[in-house]
Design a protein that fits this description.
12 helices, elongated, 14 strands
Length: about 450
């Protein structure tokens, strides 16, 4: 998305310059008119101040080195010269701005109707230099004056050992941008349509990153675009990609439809999971997110049936979820949020049902986590891996600001903590667990 914003700014820079020149030309005309209104009455008044009496007095005193009539003419001449120079300068500026307008309009017409595709490809090269993301398209169409651009067979690639790498092929991508919004904030894209996406996305294993790369890798936990943007209508069809996370086995991910009525760059994760309608699958297992409107907010329903927990553990690197090795889980989430002082508080009701759950904590975990693992494993084994949990978490929209993932937003932290507390309460070991923790502090 950052590359898309840079592309738009580069491509629509000329219309912005044209707008400023037009405004400058109007301003020059206004200033010229004001000066004429101010100085013309004074010049007319000077013409009228030469009276017969003044002329007669001047004739009676021939020894006067500078008669009144001469002083008046000198003053009038000074005003006239100043007025003439000012008007000349303003006319010169106006003519210059008009020449620039004609030049830019001519260039825009030539680019729009004759050189549109090569110009955009040149801009794509500049975007690659700025972002490190390779962009190219086999066919490009559009219109500068309407703000509509379309790409056919659009290819996006980035290879990095410390950042998320991807290679995506997009059959069709089209957008309609309000280019005047490039002057103001945020940039507004009226519609963005993406159709048929294939490729792969790879997130690096944090354990293979060196210390020098840690800070750069951690910076990916947040999305910070140089210019915020809003997409008023995001429509994506047919995504088929493979996703590799932390060096684990690649997982096929497919989405038939993603529709978001409002997608903001600084709240991308929030708008995607709490404003959208999504149908798709992960490794062939269906996922459904549906959203309906309510007063000043929305109601969202997540439905994930019969999902293998081993795949879930690949996505959520938080204990006890990443200790899960076998079994399936049914996930139902109903949440609602309403704007409160321009912020949304999200109340999420979780219903988790598992079958044949297998938990395998790593042997080298710290002592306190070992006590936690013992309590949770004991409870799961007593239920033969079949558990039923109903939980509630409350999040704030600000937690999702600039977040790159659900993990970065704090959702998984809140969920795992709630799951842990719920299990401990169910097996009535909360007091014993706290005693173990207290004892370990004195050890």
């Amino acid at each position: 998305m950052e590359a898309l914003v840079i592309l738009l700014i580069e491509f629509l820079l000329d219309p912005i310059i044209l707008l400023f020149i037009l405004l400058f030309n109007v301003l020059v005309c206004i200033i010229e008119l004001i000066i004429e209104l101010i100085f013309t009455p004074f010049l007319m008044k000077d013409n009228k101040t030469t009276s017969p009496a003044m002329t007669k007095n001047a004739n009676k005193n021939p020894s006067n080195p500078e008669p009144p009539q001469k002083r008046i003419n000198s003053s009038k001449m000074t005003n006239s010269v100043f007025f003439a120079k000012t008007v000349y300068a303003l006319k010169w500026l106006r003519n210059l701005s008009l020449s620039l307008i004609i030049l830019i309009i001519s260039a825009l017409f030539i680019i729009n109707f004759a050189l549109f595709e090569p110009t955009v490809k040149w801009i794509l090269t500049r975007v690659e230099q700025k972002t490190g993301i390779e962009l190219n398209a086999e066919q490009i169409k559009g219109n500068i004056f309407t703000g509509k651009i379309s790409f056919h067979q659009f290819h996006v690639t980035r290879e990095s050992p410390i950042k998320t790498s991807f290679k995506l092929d997009i059959a069709d991508l089209s957008l309609d941008i309000d280019w005047l919004s490039l002057i103001f904030r945020p940039i507004t894209i009226q519609t963005l349509f993406i159709n048929q996406v294939t490729g792969n996305i790879t997130q690096p294993d944090p354990q293979v990153n060196t210390n020098d790369h840690t800070e750069q890798a951690d910076s990916e936990s947040q999305i910070k675009t140089k210019r915020p943007f809003v997409i008023n209508n995001l429509n994506v069809n047919k995504i088929n990609i493979t996703f590799t996370n932390n060096g684990n086995t690649p997982i096929p991910v497919s989405f038939d439809k993603i529709y978001t009525p409002k997608f903001r760059s600084d709240y991308a994760i929030f708008d995607l999971f709490f404003r959208s309608n999504i149908t798709g699958s992960i490794d062939g297992h269906p996922i459904l997110i549906s959203t309906s409107e309510m007063d000043s907010g929305r109601i969202t329903h997540w439905h994930i049936p019969d999902f293998p927990v081993a795949i879930l553990a690949n996505f959520v690197n938080k204990p006890p979820i990443n200790w899960l090795k076998g079994g399936i889980i049914n996930v139902e989430v109903k949440d609602k949020w309403q704007l409160n002082d321009q912020e949304a508080n999200i109340e999420m009701d979780w219903h988790l049902q598992s079958q044949g759950l297998i938990l395998e904590p790593p042997p080298d975990i710290p002592f306190i986590k070992r006590q936690l693992a013992f309590a949770i494993t004991h409870y799961i084994n007593s239920k033969n891996g079949d558990i039923d949990l109903r939980l509630r978490t409350v999040l704030n929209e600000n937690q999702f600001k600039n977040a790159f993932s659900l993990d970065a937003s704090g959702l998984w932290d809140a969920l795992t903590q709630t799951i842990t507390n719920s299990i401990i309460n169910k097996i009535h070991l909360k007091g014993e667990f706290n005693n173990n923790v207290t004892g370990s502090k004195h050890f």
